[in-house]
Specification:
Shape: globular
Largest sheet: 8 strands, parallel
Bound molecules: zinc ion
Helix content: 40-55%
Strand order of the largest sheet: 2-1-5-10-9-6-7-8
Number of strands: 10
Radius of gyration: 18 Å
Amino acid sequence: MGQATGYFTHKECWRHEMGAGHPECPERLDAIEDRLLMSGLDIALERREATPAPLADLELAHGRMHLAALRGLSEQLREDMAAGGPSHAQVDPDTSINTHSWDAILLAAGAALDATDAVIAGELANAFCAVRPPGHHAMRDKAMGFCFVNNVAVAAKYALERHGLKRVAIVDFDVHHGNGTEDIVAGDERILMCSFYQHPFYPLGEHSTASNLCNLPVPAYTRGMEIRELVDMMWLPRLEAHKPQMLFVSAGFDAHREDDMAQMGLVEQDYAWITERIKEVAQRHAKGRIVSCLEGGYALSALGRSVEAHLRVLAGV
Ligand SMILES: [Zn+2]
């Protein structure tokens, strides 16, 4: 029997929430789990409980002060709540923490690290981390856009620094630009970052022109077939040339046409197709090693179906 696809999560990832009606909500994880149960795909996956990331590993991608500030805010919130204060502390206009958030932050990044360890050890063929909070907007020294710690960037640096890999790739198919990942990896030639994203759109700002980035801004209403062409023409030659020894995926599903967080036209089959291409690169250069982490995806039904499509390809079932 071959190795399985790992499915990493932790119940504390459900307890982080940013207030009533916030789109980055715990129900997102329910939608994924419901879909996996209903489809029977859950039995093909090896479910594992994440452990918290050590601060020393988070510091591979983040400044010590950023992490201390997040932890301090969490402690302050607990004290304020005990004194009758509000249940959330605001980090930016659309990003806040509750008393569970710090633990969820450590576990979301920890899932990516545990998955990296298990895949490199050969215990698992590849892995998906069904975690919140997401990470790809988290910059080295700044939380923003529902993100606090950059799970994928931490794991990519960890694979290089702790496991001694020489080259890795990060593929980001979330509809938003992974500005945080770019902030952390731009100029690090060991890491190739490939992405597409709706543009102009959140997060507006400077885009790095570093040579290790293959970022493809696309206009609103871009459809899956156009994305597939871009992936073929732009991502795949760069990935082939880089020969990554492991691939990390910022798996956001908010480019789905049913997701009104943005205005793109992907469907489940497009996510399956992109995942197939990623898997082929991994099989050619990386012994199949892929660690994929949930980022966005806010239309709950489409999210569940899209994660199923992504996982069916990863698991080969
Ligand atoms: Zn997004």
